[in-house]
Amino acid sequence: MASSQEKITVYNLADLKNTSDDAIPNYLNSLKFRPSHRLTDVRLALGYTAFLLAGACFLWDYKFGFDATKWYTAAAVALYSAINGALTLWIFYVERGTVYIGTAPSGETLRITSETPRKTLPEYHLTVEIEGKKGGKKETLVVTGSFTDWFDAVGHFVAPPFQSMLASAVPVIGKHDPKRVAPAEEAASAYTPEMLDALSKASVSAVSSAAETASGAESTPGKKGGKRRKA
Amino acid sequence: MYSSLVRIQNTFGFFTTVAFVIAALIAASDFITPRAPSVGMLKTTNLQVVRGRPHYYSSKKEEYAIIKFSLDADLSSLFTWNTKQVFVYVTAEWPSTSSTIGATIASNATANQAVIWDAIITSPSADHLSNLGPATLKKLRKSAAGKAIDPSRGKLSLKNQRPKYQITHPSGKIAETADVTLRLHYNVQPWVGVLTWNQGADYGLWSQLSGGLSRKFTLPGLKKREEAKKTK
Amino acid sequence: MLSSLQNPRQAAAQLMNFGLILSTAFMMWKGLSVITDSPSPIVVVLSGSMEPAFQRGDLLLLWNRNIFSETSVGEIVVYNVKDKDIPIVHRVVRKFGLGPRAKLLTKGDNNNSDDTELYAQGQDYLVRKDIIGSVVGFLPFVGYVTIMLSEHPWLKTVMLGIMGLVVVLQRE
């Protein structure tokens, strides 16, 4: 998995969230979940339609001048605002932070939305909506985790604790990946920072040299100190 | 990448937001400041029409009207902390002549309009920007020493003022034009915000310009060359 | 295998975000154009001919509709002269006649003579359609950035490059 070797800045909440968001489809698809891209496709269609409209407007304005084309331009502006408004509504009310929709091999449909509710805390909130095989009753689970549990000090994403959090909290996932389900007393947070480092090094050393990782690890505490002085 | 750059970005973004909000507030403050400009007197004192050339190399001869006037005006309420300058100008206005457009349409008083005199009155805060000689500028700055706003500059009193511009008409003829009036206008230039002109009606706290229109007069016939020379 | 299908969508989404930033800025400009009926509703002052009212780098908001009254003497207008690229911001000082054929003469407040010299060969007056708008709003200094950009064109490339990189590399 190439993405797990990528290093991010651990102070950037958006980076932490995006990396974690990306890891969810990777994990679930590897468990043979069938993803649905309906939401993304609608968003892309709306966005690119708006963009092409603006492009066309640019072209006719450039070619024929403003006065000759102003009624078309007025219509294009109105249409563009409408499409962009629809896109905004789509993102806020339909997608609302959805990172994955997919069907489990056993037939249940999952919809996972993520958010970082507080700006200053590394909290990761997942809402998992599960629909039964025969369109039965909807079940909603809320999974909360801390980014510190699956990112090491340098900013490497470490997959096992993250996957184990998901598998333990969501039975449908646990069913398809039983070895990641942690016993009740041994929660995901049982991974100590040392273990995270070791895990990340183990995965990195397979690809790159260990020396590089070590130097990266050394540079971070210094950077951290600098940050604190500024704050 | 993240830390320093993002901090600079955020700081700059915040700075621009604050700057724009302050600019908007300053611009809005114009509307809560009352304006009551008035013109005590505006009248012509001497009228002349002479023939001349538009440029020294031009062979075409045109008629030029030279309108001298007197003016008393109080525009001091236009000077606020957001006033950069007030542009004051006097126009001569007359309806279209029936010979060019047709006998029926001669009613519209503003068909022809030409500035005969103008002046830039800067606020003390904008004195350094005005295009004046060093001596005049020094005198101007001294007149408002220690003042950020100087409403007294809005009080105008001109006696038998020579026009800055001798006016013509595209037809080349302007002698004996009837129903000409002089009108005083102003244009307030803010430091930030909307530009405003004299209004025809009261808007909120801004009263319309009271007075500012002279009596109707008729331009005289063409002066003979000898006479024109004599008056000079 | 399936995750490789995910990636083109993500790339497309990121590219779309960058494209939408550009196109939204462009469409807002065009929207303002449509509202003010002016091909260039915001202009930057490039010369000192209207000093002290306008300096180089000041931003002017234009209005090009005659809803209540015709463009008349005293208004500061931006006009184009045939075969000249740069629009000029000057004050109307004379107007003869009414309607679209009215003859207009302009002059810079800071200039000694009127604009007859600036007009095209054989042109003595402007008409309404030469004008792209009358100045209604004023924001000092902000336009200086564009003067910098036009005087040092490489800055444009650098800025656009940095903007593009930031948007493509950083997902927010």
Automatic annotation (TrEMBL), chain A:
Annotated Gene Ontology cellular component terms: signal peptidase complex
Keyword tags: Endoplasmic reticulum, Membrane, Transmembrane, Transmembrane helix
Residue numbers spanned by region Disordered: 207-231
Signal peptide as annotated in the record: none
Localization annotation: Endoplasmic reticulum membrane
Function recorded in the entry: Component of the signal peptidase complex (SPC) which catalyzes the cleavage of N-terminal signal sequences from nascent proteins as they are translocated into the lumen of the endoplasmic reticulum. Enhances the enzymatic activity of SPC and facilitates the interactions between different components of the translocation site.
Protein name from the UniProt record: Signal peptidase complex subunit 2
Annotated source species: Lasiosphaeria hispida
Automatic annotation (TrEMBL), chain B:
Keyword Oxidoreductase appears in the UniProt entry: no
Membrane topology per record: Single-pass type II membrane protein
Gene Ontology process terms (BP): protein targeting to ER; signal peptide processing
Location of this chain's protein in the cell: Endoplasmic reticulum membrane
The entry's keywords: Endoplasmic reticulum, Membrane, Signal-anchor, Transmembrane, Transmembrane helix
Membrane-spanning segments: 12-33
GO cellular component: signal peptidase complex
Role this protein plays: Essential component of the signal peptidase complex (SPC) which catalyzes the cleavage of N-terminal signal sequences from nascent proteins as they are translocated into the lumen of the endoplasmic reticulum. Essential for the SPC catalytic activity, possibly by stabilizing and positioning the active center of the complex close to the lumenal surface. Essential for viability.
Entry's family note: Belongs to the SPCS3 family.
Name this protein carries in UniProt: Signal peptidase subunit 3
Organism: Lasiosphaeria hispida
From TrEMBL, chain C:
InterPro entries: LexA/Signal_pep-like_sf, Pept_S26A_signal_pept_1_Ser-AS, Peptidase_S26, Peptidase_S26B
E.C. number: 3.4.21.89
Catalysed conversion reaction: Cleavage of hydrophobic, N-terminal signal or leader sequences from secreted and periplasmic proteins
Gene Ontology CC terms, in alphabetical order: signal peptidase complex
Key words, A-Z: Endoplasmic reticulum, Hydrolase, Membrane, Protease, Signal-anchor, Transmembrane, Transmembrane helix
Location(s), subcellular: Endoplasmic reticulum membrane
Residues annotated as transmembrane: 131-147
Gene Ontology BP terms: signal peptide processing
Lineage: superkingdom: Eukaryota
Membrane topology label: Single-pass type II membrane protein
Keyword Transmembrane helix: yes
GO MF: serine-type endopeptidase activity; signal peptidase activity
Similarity-based family: Belongs to the peptidase S26B family.
Quaternary organization: Component of the signal peptidase complex (SPC) composed of a catalytic subunit SEC11 and three accessory subunits SPC1, SPC2 and SPC3. The complex induces a local thinning of the ER membrane which is used to measure the length of the signal peptide (SP) h-region of protein substrates. This ensures the selectivity of the complex towards h-regions shorter than 18-20 amino acids. SPC associates with the translocon complex.
Function: Catalytic component of the signal peptidase complex (SPC) which catalyzes the cleavage of N-terminal signal sequences from nascent proteins as they are translocated into the lumen of the endoplasmic reticulum. Specifically cleaves N-terminal signal peptides that contain a hydrophobic alpha-helix (h-region) shorter than 18-20 amino acids.
Protein name as catalogued: Signal peptidase complex catalytic subunit SEC11
Species the sequence originates in: Lasiosphaeria hispida
Taxonomic lineage: Eukaryota, Fungi, Dikarya, Ascomycota, Pezizomycotina
